[in-house]
Amino acid sequence: MYDAQNISGNKAVTLLEQAQKDRIIVTMHLMGKNYERLTIITQIYTKNGITQLAIDKPGDFDKVAESLEERKIRFEFTGKDKLHYLFRTLGGEVSGNEIFVPFPEFIERIQRRQQYRLEPPVGTRMHFAHSLDRHEMTILNVSQGGALICHVKGNPRKPTLQADNHLRGLSIVFPSDEETLKVNVLEAVVKRVTKDPHTNHDRYALQFVQLSKTERKTMAALIQRFEREFLRKRQLLDH
Fold it and tell me: Which one-letter DSSP state was computed for residue 236?
């Protein structure tokens, strides 16, 4: 799904110095609290041989952090290279309008693989017409260029698709309690038909042939959104 690399030493210093210079927005999450705020890096300096970061302090930070015995903070930002970076710090102190924390041991860089394929939220569905019927399928994974789909469990209406079949007027609906998350695909082609080794049911690999510019942007935004949610859950599980 993604490739992760650890950046340390002078390269890490250079990376955060550039983030400070560009005033890149950083998401700060205080571990152990339901507390997430946007901030920026204000200083990077070395004192007594120890490198530290200074972060602009959100107004309500003191009140929320005072009950913690130790401050574990996770920081995330997207660089100008469009890659996702995250790092953690432990300890630190507050002075004036800044939070001073130790420089991280390493920074994790998350790089999407080509045509990043996302396992979407449970309940994501694809709707389309085939052989004069409307069908609903489960999406196993999806990228900006295509999707892997299978029959909805328990649904007796199963389309018989073959390689090179062209499908038109498809819609992808992502589950959400707050808003309608939907992408319309003008045309797709079935590239492969395989069997699920566990269920023996057919799985269909689709390539999106035609999306409008607006729908392509919507798809990219949703994939990035769900990727961020996945990474955030992954970090929480790590702690």
Answer: H
Q: How far apart are CA 4 and CA 83, in angstroms?
A: 11
Give first-to-last CA distance, the chain, whole Å: 21
Cα separation, 71 vs 6, whole angstroms:
22
CA nearest neighbour of 53 among 79, 28, 82: 28
* Alpha carbon distance 189, 139 (integer Å): 15
Q: What tens digit of pLDDT does each residue of 208-226 get?
A: 999 998 998 888 888 878 8
129-144 average pLDDT score? 87
Tell me the pTM: 0.52
Count of residues in the chain: 239
Closest listed residue to residue 1, CA positions, set 230, 239, 232, 238: 230
- Is the pLDDT reported for residue 184 higher than 50? yes
| CA–centroid distance for 23 within its chain | 22
Cα separation values, 27 from 55, 75, 77, 78, Å:
11, 6, 6, 10
